[in-house]
Amino acid sequence: MKDHEIQHFSDLDRLTEPLIGPETAMPHDASSVPIFQTSSFLFDRYEDMAAVFAGQSDRYIYTRGNNPTVAELEALIARMEGVEAARGFASGMAAIASAVLPFVEAGSRVVAVNNLYSDAFRLFECVLKKFGVTTDYVDGTDTEAVLAALPGASLIYLESPASWSFTTQDLRAIGAEARRLGVVSVIDNSWATPLFQRPAEFGVDLIVHAASKYLAGHSDTIAGLVAGPKALMDRINHEAYHYLGGKMSPFDAWLVLRGMRSLHLRMARHCANGLALGRALSADAAVTHVRHPAFEANPGNACLSGYGGLFAFDLDDSVDIARFTNALRVVKIGVSWGGPESLVIPAQAALGLSGAANVFQRFGTPAGSVRIAAGLEQQEALVEDVLNAIEEGRR
Ligand SMILES: Cc1ncc(COP(=O)(O)O)c(C=O)c1O
């Protein structure tokens, strides 16, 4: 297995600058963004209200639409992703649903990459299907196959790297062809964050974040964001955002903003801890596959300038998965990722997920696979914990 070099770490210096202080002047010269925990904003006069209703003024009216704390985060993510506008949502899933819905209608066809996030898969299979929107799944590492699936599609849904397979897509080739054909491209960029991948630079239209993960970074909030060109964000504003009502709350926006002030430091650590674990696991006799972009050549690896700490590895039959999992001490058992603590999900448990449309069964996730989110712990302790647990898990 080849350990690819992390090439552009100097980008971190350039990108940390916008995180240091508020995007706009704060009341009382506050050094960080206050929480505007208010539902409604008052008008002095009738004329002020009438001007807002007529679209002649864009001042704050009601927090389900706009809120100053949330607006700070929206401006920050738009700037970091290098796009014109952004919107905050109550969760990553609210962001994903709102990024997709305006661009499909009955009879539309969506193209999505295999191994997409489990609930995004369920959005396509359990919700959109009911309204006559079909989804074709393609192997995102087969660029020719992705391009061949685009003609006639309304939207292409990307995740690079994809959940559980952690395989990457050639964003430049797919973004260019989608744009040529008028297919809206959407990518979930939660894993890389704009510090390690800026999909708009490669021609992808809309960028979605589960801000619950690395952006917020402390396992204490659920939040989502969509960023993109003004024309498409206007479609989202007018055809989904206000009416679905999944608005990010001021308090959640404040938590994400606070988390993002240390994003560069945390991402460097998640990246290093993930690579250290990946290296140690590659050398372990019981590990048959390390699913991490640094350890596998795939078409979109060149789009990444660093790595998230989330990846998967496959254990052979010599290890009992339950015993391995229970032997972990530093690493905890839990869903989600992006917080300070390292977490595992064994595929054996995920394959048994109740309810319709099981993404793990659909894309054949091996029962011996384990997803691990490398947290911020001391590196040697983390590596030792996982290697010890493999030893203890031996049948
Ligand atoms: C890759 C990815 N995208 C999106 C989401 C959804 O985010 P949220 O839980 O904030 O709705 C998740 C959540 O686990 C995820 O892992």
Task: Give a structural overview.
It is a single chain. This protein has helices at 11-16, 46-53, 68-81, 92-100, 118-127, 143-149, 171-181, 193-196, 230-244, 250-260, 263-282, 321-327, 347-350, 359-362, 379-393, and strands at 85-89, 109-113, 134-138, 155-159, 184-188, 206-210, 224-228, 287-291, 310-315, 332-333, 343-346, 369-373. It is of the alpha/beta class and 395 residues long. The chain has two domains: 11-260, 3-Layer(aba) Sandwich (Aspartate Aminotransferase, domain 2); 263-393, Aspartate Aminotransferase, domain 1 (Alpha-Beta Complex), CATH 3.90.1150.10. The strands form two sheets. It has a seven-stranded mixed sheet with strand order 1-7-6-5-4-2-3, sandwiched between helices. Helix 5 links the parallel strand 2 and strand 3. Helix 12 (321-327) packs antiparallel against helix 15 (379-393). Residues 91-93, 117, 163, 188, 190, 210, 212, 222, 224, 336 line the site of pyridoxal-5'-phosphate (PLP). Residues 91-93, 117, 163, 188, 190, 210, 212, 222, 224, 336 line the site of pyridoxal-5'-phosphate.
